[in-house]
Amino acid sequence: MSVKLTEKSLSVSRAYDELEGPGLGGIVLFVGRVRPDRKGLQRVEALLYEAHRPLALAAFRKLERDARQRLGASRVVIWHRLGRLPVGTASVIIGVAMAHREAAFAACRALIDRLKREVPLWKVDQVRPEHRRRKLPSPSAGR
Amino acid sequence: MGGTIRILCFAMAREATGHALLEWPAPSEGVSVRDLLQQLCEKYPRLLPVLRVSRLVRNDRYLGKATGRLRAGDEFAIHPPYSGG
Q1: How confident is residue A130, by pLDDT bands cut at 50, 70 and 90?
Q2: pTM of this prediction?
Q3: What ipTM goes with this model?
Q4: Which of A135, A134, A96, A87 has its CA nearest to residue A115?
Q5: Of A24, A129, A34, which is closest to residue A77 (Cα–Cα)?
Q6: Which residues of B touch A136 (CB under 8 A)?
Q7: With an 8 Å Cβ cutoff, are A140 and B21 in contact?
Q8: Would you call B12 exposed, middle or buried from its count of C-beta atoms within 10 A (0-12, 13-18, 19+)?
Q9: Which of B77, B79, B82 sits opposite A117 (nearest CB)?
Q10: I want to staple B11 with a disulfide (CB 3.0 to 4.6 A). Which of A122, A128, B16, B61 is the partner?
């Protein structure tokens, strides 16, 4: 599947399999992972990812279509994980397969940049218990 | 007899209201988006700065402006700035 939102772990090798094809000389994969917090305080233990699913999937399909039609991508993967992801976990995989590497790098970069700007996805810090001030409600079920 | 409007609150909006989903009473004639936002801010003052930077969605369609009416059965979503990836 070229676009998906999932609670399950993301597999780089499966993404690569989706992108393989004859005549495709360049495959670029970007994997985004959950970082520890920037200040180095070890405050964040995980990120909670949520999406407005119908709109996020529609936005993914638009990104995929644009990558094919405007950027000339032959194959595209846009996968994003949802739910509670501990530090170090892969949260997103963007993959592009094209005839040549330069165009593939550019398309992959454009896709992750647009995903961050245009797709209704959010991440909220889950801080370690000793740093918590109050409990947050859970995201809406099924959305 | 009015029903309710489902209000989806994501991320910062959820933090500001304390709810991921609000079932908001809707009068039979509906309520304007502007009035609904005002009511929400009166009940959840921390939502005001979030709304200033949020996109609004009615029944899975983005609203260009905070105009129009919402009726019972409608779904309304508050989208704070996106932060996927």
Answers
A1: confident
A2: 0.90
A3: 0.93
A4: A96
A5: A24
A6: 14-15
A7: yes
A8: buried
A9: B82
A10: A122
